[in-house]
Amino acid sequence: MAKVKSLYRCADCTHEVAKWVGRCPSCGGWGTIEEAAVSSTAVAVGRRAMLPSTAATPISSIDSKKTQARSTGVSELDRVLGGGIVPGSVVLLSGEPGVGKSTLLLEVAHRWARARDEIALYVTAEESAGQVRLRADRTGAVHEKVYLAAESDLATILGHVEQVRPTLLVVDSVQTMLAGDADGVIGGVTQVRTVTAALTSLAKASGVSVLLVGHVTKDGAVAGPRTLEHLVDVVLQFEGDKHSALRMVRGIKNRFGSTDEVGCFEMQEHGIVCVDDPSGLFLHHRGAAVPGTAVTVAMDGKRPMLGEVQGLTVDTQAPAPRRAVSGLDFNRVAMVLAVLQSRGGVYVGKQDVYAATVGGMRLTEPAADLAVALAIASASMDRALPSGMIVLGEVGLAGEVRQVTGLTRRLAEAERLGFTEALVPPGVERAGRKMTLREVSDLGAALAVTGLRARRRPRAEPAEMAE
């Protein structure tokens, strides 16, 4: 008889320890150490070879058409998935409560059934079937091929799949499902891993496409063990601010495509709709140019989106002027203010400075540095930038304007939306450009081109001169 001994393994990082501990010494997770029985002769004695049930086949003889992506009917979701859902794949959609995950997946099930005349099974353990029907009535997602099941038991769900024979299965959510043959409580590490593994095996064996809803922790990560992300094929993050109607889907992991695409949606009263051109949401439409504003082009993955940066300066008598930032990186704005004063001659040390973006957009990349600097300079001098101009460039501590990534795509997006002039770093390719490109090598040149002449340095107060 082979001697069996026990060791303890972390469910998140698979780190092994000799005895049970409450916290994993490797990843720091609490309550993730589980007992595992290991034979002492497993390493010393080799395993016998077994006859495989199916022979290995040449890769050239495998039909790839059976695994081509199928459109969900939601264009922005297809963009992130890489064209659609691959048959037999498992997609995990995570997001904060109330962001609209259930609404989006109910719309996917409806469009799937309507476009393909195939059955889509929507399983929910967080709501009753009547509550889901109310949402479907409100969003117009009622279809005879969409089946609902309010179940939390895994075995019962598998029975529904065998009975209904769907081609799309939506599970809302994986943390509320219960596997009777596994230990632990609902939502625990063991339960979540067992349920996900069972649904993944179902998808691979039957070819059913599975969409899972996942909860997130306070840090925004997917709740449960990290092995959950390794079991599924695609991990999507559904983001949104409760004060804004804009929603975004980002790819965290995708075995069938890239993770650089971003899908944009807008939450409305009658449901969630795709936003094919999100740049309009981040621009304040006005008839004339306004001091303190600058338009730039941000890259979210591979997608260019125009955004407006607004600045405001107010004289103050406080010993420590206020710096308020919204939608921008506070430390980056502070650096731009220092460069603007030291290299550009625009002194805002005695003024409160406010910098923000429009429409809830977040600009954290260095490509927005020059737009932030010119917006604040424009507000300080009460002089607007030329109408129809976009501003692109990273600002260094020496005041130089550096190149940014994806400049060609950014300019093409701005030109498509009707902008006629661009303030860009040196070395931009001009071939095929209809818009006027104004190259600037440093911040001083950018201020001169836009007509924002630097103020003279304020004269020192008598008390300061005495010191």
TrEMBL record:
<feature type="binding site">
    <location>
        <begin position="95"/>
        <end position="102"/>
    </location>
    <ligand>
        <name>ATP</name>
    </ligand>
</feature>
<keyword id="KW-0479">Metal-binding</keyword>
<dbReference type="InterPro" id="IPR014721">
    <property type="entry name" value="Ribsml_uS5_D2-typ_fold_subgr"/>
</dbReference>
<comment type="function">
    <text>DNA-dependent ATPase involved in processing of recombination intermediates, plays a role in repairing DNA breaks. Stimulates the branch migration of RecA-mediated strand transfer reactions, allowing the 3' invading strand to extend heteroduplex DNA faster. Binds ssDNA in the presence of ADP but not other nucleotides, has ATPase activity that is stimulated by ssDNA and various branched DNA structures, but inhibited by SSB. Does not have RecA's homology-searching function.</text>
</comment>
<comment type="similarity">
    <text>Belongs to the RecA family. RadA subfamily.</text>
</comment>
<keyword id="KW-0234">DNA repair</keyword>
<dbReference type="Pfam" id="PF13481">
    <property type="entry name" value="AAA_25"/>
</dbReference>
<keyword id="KW-0067">ATP-binding</keyword>
<keyword id="KW-0862">Zinc</keyword>
<feature type="region of interest" description="Lon-protease-like">
    <location>
        <begin position="352"/>
        <end position="467"/>
    </location>
</feature>
<dbReference type="InterPro" id="IPR020588">
    <property type="entry name" value="RecA_ATP-bd"/>
</dbReference>
<dbReference type="Pfam" id="PF13541">
    <property type="entry name" value="ChlI"/>
</dbReference>
<dbReference type="InterPro" id="IPR003593">
    <property type="entry name" value="AAA+_ATPase"/>
</dbReference>
<keyword id="KW-0547">Nucleotide-binding</keyword>
<feature type="domain" description="RecA family profile 1">
    <location>
        <begin position="66"/>
        <end position="216"/>
    </location>
</feature>
<dbReference type="InterPro" id="IPR020568">
    <property type="entry name" value="Ribosomal_Su5_D2-typ_SF"/>
</dbReference>
<dbReference type="InterPro" id="IPR041166">
    <property type="entry name" value="Rubredoxin_2"/>
</dbReference>
<comment type="function">
    <text>Plays a role in repairing double-strand DNA breaks, probably involving stabilizing or processing branched DNA or blocked replication forks.</text>
</comment>
<protein>
    <recommendedName>
        <fullName>DNA repair protein RadA</fullName>
    </recommendedName>
</protein>
<feature type="short sequence motif" description="RadA KNRFG motif">
    <location>
        <begin position="253"/>
        <end position="257"/>
    </location>
</feature>
<keyword id="KW-0378">Hydrolase</keyword>
<dbReference type="Pfam" id="PF18073">
    <property type="entry name" value="Zn_ribbon_LapB"/>
</dbReference>
<dbReference type="InterPro" id="IPR004504">
    <property type="entry name" value="DNA_repair_RadA"/>
</dbReference>
<dbReference type="InterPro" id="IPR027417">
    <property type="entry name" value="P-loop_NTPase"/>
</dbReference>
<keyword id="KW-0863">Zinc-finger</keyword>
<keyword id="KW-0227">DNA damage</keyword>
<keyword id="KW-0346">Stress response</keyword>
<keyword id="KW-0238">DNA-binding</keyword>
